[in-house]
Amino acid sequence: ADLVASGLGSRRALTAVPDDFVCPLTAELMEDPVRLPSSRMTVDRSSILRHLLDVGMDPFTRTPLTPDQLVDDAELAARITAWRRTDELASEGAAPASEGTGDGGGRGGGELPQ
Question: Please, what is the Cα angle at 18 between 12 and 22, to 5 degrees?
């Protein structure tokens, strides 16, 4: 699994993301996976749409490709959604290192209680 920004909130910046959930064009967690018809690769919809604005071809096979040819990958989208829910639940109990230390997070200047 890759370590990528998962966008699951501020509690954890990085988490182990299953490789098949990562867009090969951006190396980011996919939000809306779609399959490309000629290469059969799965990428994030927003990534391939940006690519198609400039190039108009499948980035893997260089064959012509239009947005209407993209095939939704509902099964993968459901797996990503389920993984995100599980990961969010697992991370709810994990506090960042700076929280809960009791030092107030500031620098000096304060007096200790008597």
Answer: 90
Instruction: Give me the half-sphere count of Cα atoms (radius 13 Å) on the Cβ side of residue 87.
Output: 20
Report the 10 Å Cβ neighbour count for 21: 22
Asked whether 56 and 64 are in contact (CB, 8 A), the reply is yes
Residues 6+ apart with CB under 8 A from 2: 16, 17, 19, 22, 27
pLDDT 10s digits, 41-89: 999 999 999 999 999 999 999 999 999 999 999 999 999 999 998 877 7
Beta strands in 18-114 (DSSP E): 33-35, 42-44, 71-72
